[in-house]
């Protein structure tokens, strides 16, 4: 029989239970006397009939019964020797009673709770002892205390052994002494005394036997218990395995789980080889298998909860951390069960999750909100058939956005770099909200779907195909997780399917018409993932509403800046798809991606050009004809046009990635058409401004004429040069470019249209004067003879006055001098022509004299006007001179010259104003 070791807790507990002791180190035996109140019949032969509680009471701790005795002995009356009375078992305190009283745990030594803190009491509570007495101790300090306790127990081991030996020896010695006394008395002649003593000895012997038999029985049980303990010790690992595995799983200590599990597998297999069939061990092993299986199932469930977008993009750098992640879970499953393959299931789950997301109609956006927002703009501000005069209405979204562009691009502090951050400010808030939907959609497709789902899906597959095996143990490397050629082919099909769906979604958005997109949103809102996108209609560059991705009533600047950002994002992400390993050798999907990028780019360009055509007339109509602070005679429109076209051309160049003749032709034709629309808008704007303020009619006309001239001579050449630089064209070098001829034609027609009114006034003055000439000249002959002065006709002076007044008015409008000269020259020419065409041979001599005088004065004035004019601007007076010579055949020219000079002198101020440029 092996010896019990009192240094081992289980052995100590066995001794205490066996001997019904409360301590293995008693200090006094004074209280061990059985109280007289306890009556036990020791004559019985059947020891089992003695009540268990009585035996336990006899052999155990009687402290709890002390309260019932006449002498209630309290804890403070127990005599203990020296420092051990209330000493700390861990060796830190000399007296724990003082500490308990100081902490208000106990009032004094009479407090019954004291036993919970006394190590030698059966009521001792180790958790309470540590939490109260040693709550301030660190782990290292407690380890030192445990060492002190172990040393103390070791030092008292001999005393315990001696105590047990002495108890047995006392009992045996008592019996031997009694037997010896009995023999001695038996050899004597004591008679009755011996009989009485014999009876007493028999009774004592019986009592001793009753005391010894239970002890001997307990010794036998101790042997059995010791054998059981040894058996448990020998198989302690296997018996404790379920408990250990649960603990390690709770602590997420997988290394210990796999280590203990593999050791358990080996141990159990060895038992089977040795044919040690044991129901207990089979049950334990079944428990182990259930624990491991539940652990794997829990990890499989955790894998199902991991969606692709929750996986970090740099997951490869995190796979060696202890933080739970999909790689770690899969690795653990394979390590625990190498014959399982959770990878394929994980990848299939992720693919189905992505596919379900992609099949949600348009995309994961608020369809109803987008649909309502688009319709609200369309219904409230529908301008598809709206005449341009509606721009006068300040409530028009088109008017507001165009005015913002005009104001920004006409500013002295205009900076192209600032537009990039403020381009959305040109739109109203409701239109900006629609643009946000488009950007949200593209972000959803590029970042949320392509980057966070499809690209991550590909990187995960790549990792499992090439790198994952190296992270496994040698035992697990031979598992069935590897990908065969068929499964790799499936992966490529997965990737192609997802890529095709994304390309289809993006191509639809940027190819559909307004009606197509509206129908798609309706279908998606109603049918959800079952919605099938309708076929797209045909876009028309002359109709912005045929481009579904462009919000109603947005402007060209917002559109060109937005599309550049959108396309850059789309091209970047789709190109990353094309460069993926799973798709590099797939020509089909590569072609689909290239086609999608091309179609999106082409439609974006056409959409921007459509807005260019739509906006250019609006910009002309936004010109309220305020003078240009930098270009005299022009309005702010010419500055707006130069800045606007340069910005638009620059951003459009950023958008073009595919250089082909078709796109180049569309761009050239659209830009030239925009110039035509610009000129039309400038002419329409004259009427718009006249309707607002007719007094400035002259200014509106002549400022517009100069705007056209400045645009032709200064702005357009710069635009064409920028155009050629960005699009590798040669428009700026073409001398016969039709637009220049059109500008001159428009310029001339505007000027002619303007001159209709002043010429009409002049015509009326001349015609009225000529019709009254015969009557007004009557009696001139009577005045010539005495040398009286003949005055120039009133209609001539009135005509000159009209021209002078118009000149003064134009000067007040800050019209350029060259244009004032043109207006003046046109009126003088018309004056000559009207007077010449009105002459009649039927005039009387007096009337002819008056006409000759009028022509002579005008010829002198025109001559002085020509002297101050440039060679190319001088007026032709040839026909006027011929008419004068014809009239002077029968007239005294000396008289004419005299009266001419007098009139020139008399009307000097008026005539000087007329001859001055």
UniProtKB/TrEMBL annotation:
Give the domain of life.
Answer: Eukaryota
GO biological process terms, alphabetically, are: exocytosis; Golgi to plasma membrane transport; protein transport
Instruction: Name the keywords, alphabetized.
Output: Exocytosis, Protein transport, Transport
Tell me which InterPro entries the record gives.
Answer: EXOC2/Sec5 (IPR029175), EXOC2/Sec5_N_dom (IPR039481)
GO CC field: exocyst
- Kindly indicate whether the keyword rRNA processing belongs to this entry: no
> Where is the Exocyst complex component EXOC2/Sec5 N-terminal domain positioned along the sequence?
87-873
Claim: S-adenosyl-L-methionine is one of the keywords in the record:
no
Q: Which PANTHER family does this UniProt record tie to the protein?
A: EXOCYST COMPLEX COMPONENT 2, EXOCYST COMPLEX COMPONENT SEC5
Role, per record: Component of the exocyst complex involved in the docking of exocytic vesicles with fusion sites on the plasma membrane.
Binding partners and assembly? Component of the exocyst complex.
Sequence similarity: Belongs to the SEC5 family.
Under which name does UniProt file this protein? Exocyst complex component SEC5
Q: What lineage, starting at the top, does this entry show?
A: Eukaryota, Fungi, Dikarya, Ascomycota, Saccharomycotina
